[in-house]
Amino acid sequence: MTADHGKDRGFTLIEALVAMAVLALGAVSLLSAAESHTKRITELTGRVAARWVAEEALTQLRLGLEPEGRGVVMYGITFDVDYDRAETTDSDVQRLSLRVARAGTDQTLYVLDGYVDSGAAS
């Protein structure tokens, strides 16, 4: 009796190595895509928090209060708020431009323009 050692009995070592290389490339691609997605979500969270900080500061200015300006914390992120006032053609209204950046950086994450009663802005 002879053993049947036909060609179709299994994978060769080369075929197994090629299959593992293809799986490794797929895993690296998936990891890279997940890392990129996480980075975009983190950046988006920062911009949303910066928008809320700007809206809160504009509301404080409309109420005649001075916003905190430095060290405003939202979502555990610390922001700095700067704003400029400008006169309009209506003497009772001032234009405000608010810029929100992460604390300690000059990179503006959100800009909000709004209007306020001149009596409340002073």
From TrEMBL:
Post-translational modification: Cleaved by prepilin peptidase.
Transmembrane segment boundaries: 12-34
Localisation per UniProt entry: Cell inner membrane
Record has Cytoplasm as a keyword: no
Annotated membrane topology: Single-pass membrane protein
InterPro entries per UniProt: N_methyl_site, Pilin-like, T2SS_GspI_C, T2SS_protein-GspI
Keyword Secreted tagged: no
Major site of localization recorded for this protein: membrane
UniProt keyword annotations, A-Z: Cell inner membrane, Cell membrane, Membrane, Methylation, Transmembrane, Transmembrane helix
Superkingdom field: Bacteria
Positions of the Type II secretion system protein GspI C-terminal domain: 47-116
Short name of any one Pfam family annotated for the protein: N_methyl
GO cellular component, as recorded: plasma membrane; type II protein secretion system complex
Example GO BP: protein secretion by the type II secretion system
Family per similarity comment: Belongs to the GSP I family.
Known function: Component of the type II secretion system required for the energy-dependent secretion of extracellular factors such as proteases and toxins from the periplasm.
Oligomer and partners: Type II secretion is composed of four main components: the outer membrane complex, the inner membrane complex, the cytoplasmic secretion ATPase and the periplasm-spanning pseudopilus.
Descriptive protein name: Type II secretion system protein I
Species this chain originates from: Sulfitobacter brevis
